[in-house]
Amino acid sequence: MANIIEDSINFGMGLFAYSREKIEDLVEKMVAKGEVQRKDAQGFANDLIKKGEAQREEISRMVKDEVRTTLQDVGLTADTRITKEDIREIIKEELAAAKADEK
Question: What is this structure's pTM?
Answer without folding.
Answer: 0.47
